[in-house]
Specification:
Blueprint (H helix, E strand, L loop, with lengths): L1 H20 L2 H5 L3 E3 L2 E3 L9 E5 L12 H11 L3 E7 L10 H18 L2 E7 L7 H15 L5 E4 L9 H16 L7 E3 L2 H4 L2 H6 L8 E8 L7 H12 L4 E7 L11 H13 L4 E6 L26 H13 L2
Parallel strand pairs: 3-4, 3-10, 4-5, 5-6, 6-7, 7-8, 8-9, 9-10
Antiparallel strand pairs: 1-2
Length: 324
């Protein structure tokens, strides 16, 4: 009897070990929206946690390498990354579409190879002014990645000075294009006021399409991003709006400012309590609070503790603990 028990115990340990060694996508499969939540192939929230690349220009551009994606998976233990393609600024997609698409595709393809989820982010504050360009871009992405379970389309980073009617009209146009080619992969829609007015979106959500989620953004130490902002998200969740945190930072809304550990931990607990997936901002060596890297950190990963900022060390520790 004892030998039989030992045998079955060994089998159990083997299954646990195998599960732990599976990639995030192998564990969770194709994602969908069901019952007001993003769920995996088992019908439960996958609780993906990871990091957003910075704008695909300026200082963050140099880190758009397959080696960095691989390092984030192996060392930071991320399960999701975000490729934030700059659209409107100089050297962005509007000026350099081929160059920008090449950067994004290199990161997305490596994430797929490594079994991570990846957000293809149209990183724009004025997407309604660039609707035709966005439709053309996401047509290409949907044709290329249709049916690939790793890929999530984020069609408007942060609507700024606009209203929900404008955001919704834009979203319906882009969603229609994507769904012509990719019938099921998650599409993430923004909301007014830098992805904060999710309660407004929840009162008038997009209908007629499957697997639509909504982005919610915050900066944990910002004095204006505390109880009142959480209340807006809580209301949206209560109304059944499926949320994903495609961007949040440990500092303040300008990317700099104070790193308040107590406030950051409060937000982190809130995300965990609500079983929300998230991507932290951001992979760059720019001298600011939310930057993950110190100046001149290697562009191919292999980062030592000395290469990490306080934000980088904190996020790495949390990811390695939560995703283990």
């Amino acid at each position: 009897m004892r030998s039989i028990l030992v045998f079955f115990a060994a089998i159990g340990i083997f299954h646990v070990s195998v599960a732990q060694n599976l990639s995030p996508v192998a564990r969770n499969g194709a994602l969908k929206v069901d019952g007001g939540k993003i769920v995996n192939q088992q019908g439960v929230a996958p609780r993906l946690r990871g990091i957003s690349f910075s704008w695909s220009l300026w200082q963050g551009r140099k880190y758009y390498t397959p080696a960095v994606v691989n390092w984030l998976g192996n060392d930071f233990k991320v399960s999701i990354i975000r490729a934030a393609m700059g659209v409107q600024p100089d050297s962005g997609y509007l000026q350099q579409p081929k160059e920008q698409k090449k950067l994004i595709v290199s990161v997305v393809d490596q994430a797929i190879k490594d079994g991570m989820y990846v957000l293809i982010d149209w990183h724009d504050h004025n997407s309604n002014l660039h609707t035709e360009q966005a439709k053309a871009f996401f047509k290409q992405m949907a044709q290329k990645y249709k049916g690939v379970p790793n890929v999530i389309y984020e069609i408007w980073n942060e609507p700024a000075a606009t209203d929900w009617a404008t955001v919704k009209s834009y979203a319906l146009q882009v969603i229609t294009v994507i769904r012509q080619y990719d019938k099921d992969n998650i599409i993430v829609v923004g909301s007014p006021h830098w992805d904060q007015d999710v309660d407004v979106a929840a009162a008038d959500p997009i209908k007629g399409f499957n697997n639509i989620a909504y982005s919610f953004h915050f900066y944990a130490s910002d004095p204006y991003h505390q109880d009142a902002l959480r209340a807006k998200a809580d209301k949206a969740i209560k109304l059944g709006l499926p949320l994903i945190i495609t961007e949040w930072g440990v500092g303040e809304a300008n990317g700099d400012g104070k790193f308040d550990l107590e406030k950051t931990n409060t937000w982190l607990k809130w995300m965990e309590d609500n079983q929300l997936s998230w991507a932290n901002w951001n992979i760059t060596d720019k001298h600011e609070t939310t930057a993950i890297l110190q100046k001149d950190a290697p562009v191919n990963g292999g980062w030592t503790p000395a290469n990490l900022t306080p934000a980088g060390a904190y996020i790495r520790n949390e990811l390695r603990d939560l995703n283990k």
